[in-house]
């Protein structure tokens, strides 16, 4: 496999762009938003921390040809997928909307909570509810394809935490089969409730709002939001087109745990080992050639132990394999976690630098015994081994059993950096004057710091961006290191309606300037030599209008527990049975084995939280699979309830916050 990553775009906690994301990682920043201390609630602890992003409801409806109502109804995740796909295409220097019959998209997202809230809203008429059904989640990929005119393979998938990397794996397959010439792959994860999360003993979330993967004091992950898209091409096509290449995907594997594990939500060391091994075999790369692996790294005791165990079966301690753990920085982005890891890994190889692992000060014994390196400062990979390219892997393991591993190498083709220019013209355009003005400011700031890239920038703007109705030109001048960027003043009326650029110099661009400003067509063929090439530039400045159907509405809450009046008429044995049935949907008898309850390690955590909320007894220490029958489990729990009741008769522990429906959804997701 030889698939080039030629473009990328994304938003992450603390970063509104890929460039800011990389800057934060190299600076060793933890970008989780924390808004206060923990709060004891009914059956769980509320941790006021989250990997949140700014502007979840912002969208440029006019740019994508959508009316206000349509934009309001469309789930924010679908809106972000459209915007990220457009930005990624810009980054790749591929003109959006033209000749896109061989461009495809594979993407995924979490449940559309916003759209579901609309669908189940009271007071909707029949036709309103039927209309709302259109936005429940099936149109994530197809709506983006419709708006950006992608006519190749377009697929939507859900593979829980492995979704983003699974999308990239499938996209590579479409390129290898020849079904597409360009593929986009990505994922988005946006949560309407993005201020806090629930913590319970035995769960997967962090006890204190910090992620510490592979550290002795790790206690779980912090939920987070984000979105990212990468643009992929066959390597030989990218070289032919003089594309900027972040990294080259050499091989990948997608497998499932099957039933070779202790429970549905538990990870499998054997399955993870096989997935990484298959990816290396697919890439025809030996384990000793790998420099770094960006791990799944959830910071859960079980997850970290299983992942390290799988890696130790492949990589020898003397290799000193470097491990990355980006969830420590930004949280667990759930469906977008894998694509966030892929973006980071590609940037590691492009920049020949591994950012530090944050928060994991006390490296676990298992990591030390495996010889793994969790660097506390940036590590340069320059000159690490001249005999073969820098190589890195990235893992993404989804709850339920989907496992993906991808192997990448640094591009052997060096990106040419030009000489600082004395003068250059930049052709800018946007759909509205406001967006154009914002982009002028953003681009002028960029140009002031990159005089060596002016020629490549002029080429990228003309060959890789669509010319829109509102236009302007900036002129940059470099006089002895003193740089000025100012608006271009038109000389006169345009003599021609079309102009074909044959070179990207200030003199040549000035000949086309008046034609461009008059709305004429500027043709710039893709480069056929190595003098100029596509580079990353500031992306289109979308309008930031907020579209939120529920803005201003007060959150309503419902208690998740039965009233104390009805509870007095139910025995603890029956109550626990009812709780298990409510959570799993399974009916069972005391003589049945544990499997009949439908419980696994994740659903049992929810059952325990409900029992603790109702009776004040903790069941987190119970080993679910240590019982032969359901009756033994029920007897153990009811005995604990009886002990707590006898110890607390007459006591008043004070009021606790009720568990709301939203809180329960947080626990499940």
UniProtKB/TrEMBL annotation:
GO process annotations (BP): fatty acid biosynthetic process
GO molecular function: fatty acid synthase activity
UniProt superkingdom: Bacteria
Coiled coil: none
Database matches in PROSITE patterns: CARRIER (PS50075), KS3_2 (PS52004)
Keyword Phosphoprotein listed: yes
InterPro entries, per database record: ACP-like_sf, Ketoacyl_synth_C, Ketoacyl_synth_N, PKS_assoc, PKS_Beta-ketoAc_synthase_dom, PKS_NRPS_Biosynth_Enz, PP-bd_ACP, Thiolase-like
Domain Carrier: 567-641
Domain Ketosynthase family 3 (KS3) residues, every copy: 1-410
Keywords, in A-Z order: Phosphopantetheine, Phosphoprotein, Transferase
Any one Pfam family match given in the protein's UniProt record, by short name: PP-binding
PANTHER family according to UniProt: FATTY ACID SYNTHASE, SI:DKEY-61P9.11
Entry protein name: Beta-ketoacyl synthase, N-terminal domain protein
Source organism of this protein record: Ruminococcus albus 8
Native organism taxonomy: Bacteria, Bacillati, Bacillota, Clostridia, Eubacteriales
């Amino acid at each position: 496999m030889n698939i080039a990553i030629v473009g990328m775009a994304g938003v992450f906690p603390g970063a509104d762009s890929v460039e800011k994301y990389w800057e934060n990682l190299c600076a060793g920043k933890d970008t989780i938003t924390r808004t206060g201390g923990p709060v004891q609630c009914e059956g769980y602890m509320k941790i006021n921390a989250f990997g949140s992003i700014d502007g979840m409801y912002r969208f440029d409806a006019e740019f994508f040809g959508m009316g206000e109502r349509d934009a309001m109804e469309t789930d924010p995740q679908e809106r972000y997928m459209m915007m990220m796909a457009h930005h990624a295409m810009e980054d790749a220097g591929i003109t959006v909307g033209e000749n896109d019959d061989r461009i495809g998209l594979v993407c995924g997202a979490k449940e559309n909570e916003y759209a579901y809230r609309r669908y189940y809203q009271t007071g909707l008429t029949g036709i309103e509810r039927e209309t709302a059904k259109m936005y429940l989640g099936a149109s994530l990929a197809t709506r983006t394809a419709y708006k950006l005119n992608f006519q190749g393979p377009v697929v939507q998938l859900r593979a829980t935490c492995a979704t983003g990397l699974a999308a990239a794996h499938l996209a590579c397959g479409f390129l290898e089969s020849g079904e597409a010439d360009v593929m986009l792959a990505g994922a988005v994860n946006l949560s309407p409730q993005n201020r806090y999360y629930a913590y319970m003993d035995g769960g997967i979330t962090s006890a204190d709002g910090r992620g510490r993967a592979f550290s002795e004091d790790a206690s779980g992950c912090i939920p987070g939001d984000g979105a990212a898209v990468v643009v992929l091409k066959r390597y030989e096509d990218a070289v032919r087109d003089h594309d900027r290449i972040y990294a080259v995907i050499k091989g990948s594997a997608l497998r499932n745990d099957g039933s070779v594990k202790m429970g549905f939500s538990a990870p499998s060391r054997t399955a993870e080992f096989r997935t990484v091994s298959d990816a290396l075999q697919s890439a025809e790369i030996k384990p000793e050639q790998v420099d770094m692996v960006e791990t799944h790294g959830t910071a859960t005791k079980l997850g970290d132990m299983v992942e390290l165990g799988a890696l130790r079966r492949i990589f020898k301690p003397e290799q000193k394999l470097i491990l990355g753990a980006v969830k420590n920085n930004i949280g667990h982005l759930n469906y977008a976690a894998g694509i966030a890891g892929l973006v980071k890994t590609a940037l590691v190889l492009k920049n020949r630098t591994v950012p530090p692992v944050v928060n994991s000060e006390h490296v676990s014994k298992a990591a030390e015994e495996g010889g793994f390196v969790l660097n506390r400062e940036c590590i340069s990979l320059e000159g690490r081994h001249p005999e073969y390219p820098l190589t890195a892997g990235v893992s993404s393991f989804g709850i339920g059993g989907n496992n993906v591993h991808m192997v990448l190498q640094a591009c052997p083709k060096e990106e040419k950096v030009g000489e600082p220019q004395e003068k250059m013209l930049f052709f800018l355009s946007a759909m509205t004057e406001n967006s154009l003005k914002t982009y002028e400011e953003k681009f002028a700031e960029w140009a002031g710091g990159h005089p060596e890239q002016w020629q490549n920038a002029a080429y990228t703007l003309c060959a890789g961006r669509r010319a829109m109705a509102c236009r302007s030109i900036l002129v940059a001048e470099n006089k002895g290191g003193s740089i000025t960027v100012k608006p271009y003043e038109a000389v006169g009326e345009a003599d021609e309606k079309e102009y074909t650029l044959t070179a990207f110099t200030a003199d040549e661009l000035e000949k086309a300037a008046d034609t461009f400003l008059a709305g004429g067509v500027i043709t710039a063929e893709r480069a056929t030599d190595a003098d100029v090439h596509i580079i990353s530039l500031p992306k289109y400045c979308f309008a930031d209008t907020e579209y939120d159907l529920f803005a201003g509405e007060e959150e309503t809450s419902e208690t998740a527990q039965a009233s104390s009046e009805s509870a007095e008429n139910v025995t603890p044995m029956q109550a626990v049975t009812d709780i298990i049935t409510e959570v799993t949907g399974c009916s069972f008898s005391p003589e049945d084995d544990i499997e009949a309850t439908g419980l696994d390690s994740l659903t049992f955590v929810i059952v325990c939280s409900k029992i603790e909320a109702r009776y004040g007894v903790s069941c987190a220490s119970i080993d679910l699979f240590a019982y032969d029958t359901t009756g033994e489990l029920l007897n153990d729990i009811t005995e604990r309830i009886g002990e707590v009741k006898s110890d607390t008769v007459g006591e008043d522990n004070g009021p606790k916050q009720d568990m709301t429906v939203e809180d329960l959804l947080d626990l499940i997701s």
